[in-house]
Design a protein that fits this description.
The complex is a heterodimer of chains A (192) and B (599).
Chain A lengths: L4 H30 L1 H4 L3 E4 L2 E5 L39 H17 L22 E2 L1 H15 L3 H11 E2 L10 E3 H13 L1
Antiparallel strand pairs in A: 1-2, 3-5, 4-5
Helix pairs in contact in A: 4-5
Chain B lengths: L2 H29 L8 H10 L10 H25 L15 H12 L9 H4 L2 H31 L9 H27 L9 E14 L17 E11 L5 H9 L20 H25 L3 H28 L2 H5 L23 H14 L14 H12 L10 H21 L4 E2 L2 E2 L2 H27 L1 H4 L7 H15 L14 H30 L16 H36 L2
Antiparallel strand pairs in B: 1-2, 3-4
Helix pairs in contact in B: 1-9, 3-4, 3-6, 3-18, 4-18, 6-7, 6-8, 6-18, 7-8, 7-9, 8-9, 9-10, 9-12, 10-12, 10-13, 10-19, 12-13, 13-17, 13-19, 14-15, 14-19, 15-17, 15-18, 17-18, 17-19
The chains are: A mainly alpha (192), B mainly alpha (599).
Chain lengths: 192, 599
């Protein structure tokens, strides 16, 4: 039976070269040649600096920005070198405490707002890097940002609408808004 | 749930079943040896290079030995790469060596097609380990499963034969003509959506708003400082910089989905935006989870010469899948009563997904997270796009129970269908007892030897899952890993051993499983679950191949009718329900009652 060891070893080596080296190298070559922006992380450049990736969220706590979803990465939120969800179970008291604290923070920053908070704005994402919020979560924050920035609510809604992505191909997934891109646009609008 | 939610689910099933037929028939041609003529020289050179006699047929014992030898060498390669990666090339972020217990667990996990992950990819594994170790086994463990299935199919189609085929040939053809081309297409589609594919080290970005956070303060000796109460001293720091992990991701994710592997490049698997950036990438990756397992039903029908036999198995799988999918989507969309009590808006609409969004991504919402969770555990894939640990109790029960059913609802590539065929043998045996005739399946008489082997194959996974859970909950080392209190903590452990005991690999990820206890015990469970099934299956293949084909008569139980589909579903459900009901009652069922009490 030992005679099976020779083909086993040689085939493992051959298939390792094929599937572990040639295949990823071919994909890398094609991806870098045909789709370099996506293949390198969809990075956003502004004034010659990398200000983020359109696929990776950033943390916001300043009332003048739209806030992203809560992130459970450590040590800091939105640590894109170490993705993680909260893994809190539905009956864990720590989940209730975390939600209460986030609700209080949102309400403190936006005292006139009596609307119910959309659930995605106070629950931690799976990756801890979710770049997006729901249109409902953006709408909830519009009044606060309009007040802080001294902008018309209608102007802000228009900007949010421009940055809202519908379901892909009209069917797939959920409607959503990229928070970093929206905030970058907000800052550009201010400068004008 | 919104109308769009139903539309997405129906669309998924239609595309899946629509593609499974043509692919299944193509695979049947591959295994019959009718491959493209211009690829012949490549194949022949590979065989010559490796000293393989392609026309040599193997007895089932030799076939099993070849598989074991091949997988053992694969284990050594993955183990070695992890231990030595610090001295090897393609390690731009300077990852250190993996501990022996973790390296053992991961190597076992990847050769057995489980892809349980006790590590976070972007913080531990070098690019070389991910490619040469993990990616390679993604291909080869899947191809091993397919080869075992093909041997079983030959057991049915051959008459009075002493052999079940050539393992090396089945292995090479599965890889070259099925897994590799599909992976190449899928990986490029994924890159177009934003999945990264680069050998550069992590990217660095300037944050728009600096972030403040707390870290543990270290003394001059490098040890964490503690205050008088023994609590660690925290110190505030701020940073403007975001380090963004990248890597050769797309090539690995494609085969991870297609080969029912499930081991992610990043810690959070396909919830990571670089692994699964858009709803379309999500749709393609979900399709890839079930595509080959569903298509193999058509391959089976074609190779045993009766397509209706494959359709019956596929129908049984699909019906169980739809039933459990409905429960999962409903539970997650109904959400957590706590959220309503806190006054949050949880109603689904075109403006938000609503429901239980803890541990889910905005772009996927509820429907696509629940669909993924059901598909990934129906197949033994185990990749995730949402955190199962944060699912509602009933929403989390669905993936757990799907694993406990033995990974036969589509199941892993190869392993799912051979598991389902074993259940079909048990089904015809039970029916045979009821009507007082010798059980037959596809013209082969099912005797005492086949039933003994089938019993071993069916009883092993529940035994491993339940005994493993029992040990972990009584030992301090097991309980130390629990993250959530109460019944949910028990669910975390039950989920872990159900996952390992059925080679799935998904987790209630709060459980701290990177400890010597969990690495050793889960590793052992994965080994037994894989080979204690595959070897009896090959034994059945060998025994059946040696038998005559009995022509069908009036007394033969037809195995392509709705009646048989019902019998098969009942066999799978009854075995799964009876075995696991007590354990499930202690975990998700208790927690669901507690959750209702919150209202």
């Amino acid at each position: 039976m030992l005679k099976e060891l020779k083909p086993a070893l040689l085939l493992l080596l051959a298939l390792t070269v094929l599937t572990g080296l040639l295949y990823p190298l071919l994909v890398t070559g094609l991806a870098q040649g045909l789709l370099p922006i996506q293949a390198n992380g969809s990075l956003i450049e502004q004034n010659g600096k990398t200000v983020g990736s359109s696929l990776i969220g950033q943390p916001f706590s300043d009332p003048k920005y739209f806030w992203s979803r809560p992130s459970s990465t450590s040590p800091q939120p939105y640590n894109a070198a170490s993705s993680s969800g909260s893994n809190l179970g539905p009956t864990n008291p720590a989940l209730a405490d975390a939600l209460k604290a986030r609700i209080a923070t949102l309400k403190t920053a936006d005292q006139g707002n009596r609307e119910p908070i959309p659930v995605d704005l106070v629950t931690a994402s799976a990756s801890g890097l979710d770049p997006e919020i729901s249109p409902a979560a953006a709408e909830y924050q519009v009044a606060r940002i309009a007040l802080v920035r001294g902008l018309e609510v209608a102007t802000l809604r228009e900007l949010v609408a421009r940055y809202t992505q519908g379901r892909q191909l009209g069917v797939l997934g959920e409607a959503r808004i990229n928070v970093l891109e929206l905030n970058l646009a907000l800052d550009r609008q201010e400068k004008r | 749930m919104t109308a769009n939610g139903y539309l997405q689910l129906v669309l998924y099933l239609i595309v899946l079943l629509g593609l499974a037929g043509p692919l299944g028939l193509y695979m049947a041609r591959v295994y019959r040896g009718e491959v493209l003529a211009w690829l012949r020289p490549l194949e022949n050179n590979l065989f010559r290079l490796c000293g393989i006699q392609a026309d040599e047929d193997m007895h089932w014992t030799r076939y099993a030995y070849a598989m074991l030898a091949f997988n053992l060498l694969g284990f050594l390669a993955v183990y070695g790469l992890q231990r030595l990666q610090v001295w090897l090339p393609l390690n731009p972020d300077g990852m250190g060596p993996i501990t022996p217990d973790s390296a053992f667990n991961t190597a076992v996990s990847f050769i057995t097609n489980s892809n349980w992950q006790d590590y976070g990819g972007e913080t531990t594994m070098s690019y070389l380990t991910q490619m040469l170790g993990l990616s390679v086994q993604n291909f080869l463990s899947a191809a091993s499963g397919m080869a075992t299935l093909v041997a079983l199919m030959r057991g049915f189609s051959r008459r009075e034969a002493s052999s079940v085929g050539n393992f090396w040939v089945d292995m090479v053809r599965s890889t070259l003509y099925i897994l590799l081309p599909l992976s190449l297409i899928l990986s490029l589609l994924l890159v177009s959506q934003g999945v990264v594919q680069t050998f550069s080290a992590h990217a660095t970005a300037q944050l728009l708003q600096p972030v403040e956070y707390e870290v543990v303060k270290h003394g001059l000796d490098g040890r964490p400082l503690q205050d008088v109460k023994g609590q660690p001293v925290m110190v505030k720091v701020a940073t403007r910089v975001q380090a963004i992990a990248v890597g050769p991701v797309a090539s690995q994710i494609a085969i991870k989905q297609l080969g029912s592997n499930g081991g992610g490049f990043f810690n959070v698997n396909s919830a990571h935006p670089f692994e699964n950036p858009t709803p379309l990438s999500n749709f393609l990756e979900m399709l890839a989870i079930l595509l080959i397992p569903a298509a193999l039903c058509f391959t089976f029908g074609s190779l045993v010469g009766d397509p209706r036999q494959g359709h019956a198995l596929l129908a049984a799988m699909t019906l169980i899948f739809i039933g459990l999918l409905a429960v999962c989507v409903w539970a997650e969309q109904s959400g957590n009563p706590l959220f309503d009590r806190l006054g949050l808006a949880t109603q689904a609409s075109s403006l938000q997904a609503g429901g239980n969004m803890e541990g889910k991504e905005t772009r996927f919402g509820i429907v696509n997270s629940a669909l993924w969770a059901t598909a990934t555990t129906a197949a033994s894939n185990g990749s995730v796009n949402a955190m199962h640990d944060s699912f509602t109790p009933l929403g989390g029960l669905v993936p757990m129970w799907l694993m406990q059913l033995g990974e036969v609802v589509y199941g892993g590539v190869g392993s799912g269908l051979y598991g389902m065929i074993i259940f079909a043998l048990v089904g015809v045996f039970i029916a045979g007892l009821m009507i007082g005739r010798t059980p037959e399946y596809l013209g082969k008489k099912i005797g005492a030897f086949e039933m003994k082997m089938a019993a071993v194959a069916i009883l092993m996974p529940p035994l491993l899952a339940l005994v493993g859970t029992a040990f972990a909950v009584v030992l301090d080392a097991g309980r130390a890993g629990i993250a959530n209190p109460g019944a949910h903590g028990f669910s975390e452990i039950l989920y872990a051993y159900s996952s390992a005991g059925n080679n799935n690999g998904s987790a209630f990820a709060g459980l701290s499983a990177n400890t010597p206890f969990y690495n050793a015990s889960l590793g052992l469970v994965m080994l037994l679950a894989r080979y204690w099934l595959a070897i009896p299956v090959l034994a059945i293949a060998g025994s059946l191949a040696a038998k005559k084909i009995v022509p069908a008569s009036n007394g033969t139980l037809p195995t392509h009718t709705p009646l048989f589909v019902f019998l098969l579903i009942a066999t799978v459900i009854v075995v799964g329900a009876l075995t696991f009901l007590p354990a499930l009652a202690l975990g998700p069922v208790v927690e669901q009652l507690q959750l209702l009490g919150l209202k």
